[in-house]
Amino acid sequence: MSDEEWERFLRESMAGDTGAPVEPSARAREVEHRLRSAQPQGWRTYSPPRPRRRTGRYITGMLAAVALLIAGLFPHQILGWFDDDSSAKPTPTAGPDTPTRTAPFRGSPAAHWADGAAGIRVPRAKATGWMDAAQVERALQRSRDFLVDAGLNPRVLRGEPPKKATALLNPHQKDLQQFLRTALTSKSPTPKTDPLLLFSRFRPEQARLVGDVVKTRGHLTYREGKRGALVVTADVTFVYPVTPADDDSEVIRTIVRREVVMSWDDPAKVITEPGTMSLVSYTLDMTNGGCSAPTGYFEPPFDTADKQAADESHRIDPYDRSKPINTTDNATTKNPNCATATRS
Fold it and tell me: Which of 28, 83, 112, 236 could form a disulfide with 24 if both were Cys (CB 3.0 to 4.6 A apart)?
């Protein structure tokens, strides 16, 4: 701007000429900003990109997880897609409920049961009959000891004599002592003299336990009996995972539920020895232990037709403990204690 124009601008401004520039008001500035914002951008103008959501990574991760899941559920099918050898035979696989040497209780309710003696619950002791609370507690522990030796002792399971268990039995109970002599020595036991009625045993040359764990579930109860005796009832289920003695081709679970009624008699009223008991009764249900004539040992049916040899009229769920043991004799089977399992 020249000096003449600048002087004219100052004179007009001081005189209040409406042609002089006026500072726009705040409202005018706001309106002008809106108008400029509404104008379309030029094709060369730069506009910063909006931040994008990282959906690509999430989709990629989800697809990878699904692929891993499919590969885990169907590994052999996945491998077959890349196998050019059409003559290769598929590798046999174990089903999700098939027991194996590393998981002998897989697919069985017993997988969640306690191990060994821990699964046999003992009630709180209180004075009953001729015994005070301390004596009742001792009798309950000895009753449990009998079950542990008879059904869990590794030596007894291999066929050795159940010395601890028999030492707890009243030597003056003649019928029981006769049963023990016959059952533990006879090579051809009958259904009434079968040692399996009281003791769990496997023939070492035919079957052996998988690992050293036997699953159990059961309890003891007690009441006052005749002549003030303490009557203890045991109801316990034992689950034995076994495999053939000469190979590891198959794992079978032999399931045995026992009910044993024991009487701790008052020595003042019954002829007995201190620390021993008399047996009132003993029954069992057995599945996958063999259904041929008694041999004195459980004989798991490894890959044999004996799996279907049980009487179909005597079908049980060996894990169902809500019902009492079926004590009805099965005249159609050689082994009346054998039942067909609805699951194992």
Answer: 28
